[in-house]
Amino acid sequence: MPKGYIFIITKDHSGVATRKGIVQSMKEFKVKKLNKGDYVFLYASKAKFGSSEPYRKMVAYGKVIDEKPYKVVTKDYTAWRRKVEYFYTKETDILKIIPHMSFIENKSHWGAYLISGIAKLNQEDIPKLIKMIKI
Q1: Angle, vertex CA 114, rays to CA 5 and CA 101, nearest 5
Q2: Could you tell me if 5 and 41 are in contact, meaning their C-beta atoms sit under 8 angstroms apart?
């Protein structure tokens, strides 16, 4: 049964991820836990990388389509990526989603569940989240 993970990124980086059909992390273990067929949800906490301007929307979701992570090295950074097929998504305010997510036990402190940069969803949360953001 496929698992689901929320990756916390910025709105500007979500556009790059969906255009390239990837999800990435600077830490291999974060993308290594993904299996082919798992769901990836992108939550944009900020509008732009390096900015303090909040965005707080679920912006994309898709399915992992490759078998293992691959490394990308540029002059600016080294990252680990997975290939993802993204689906049409309506951007949805995170505050409308939080009450429906069982993995967030303390709804008034929901940010603590996302602080690590990746959060694993409970199985029952996956179809609920898809229904809320799918076009």
Answers
A1: 65
A2: yes
Name the pTM for this structure.
Answer: 0.96
> What's the CA gap between 34 and 7, in Å, rounded?
11
Map tokens 């993904």 to a residue. Answer: 34
CATH code, domain with 45? 3.10.590.10
Domain that holds residue 56: 4-133
Q: What is the mean pLDDT of residues 7-19?
A: 96
In the chain, the number of structural domains is 1
CB atoms within 10 A of CB 133: 22
**48 alpha-carbon distance from chain centroid:** 16
Residue 62: beta bridge partners?
Answer: 40, 86
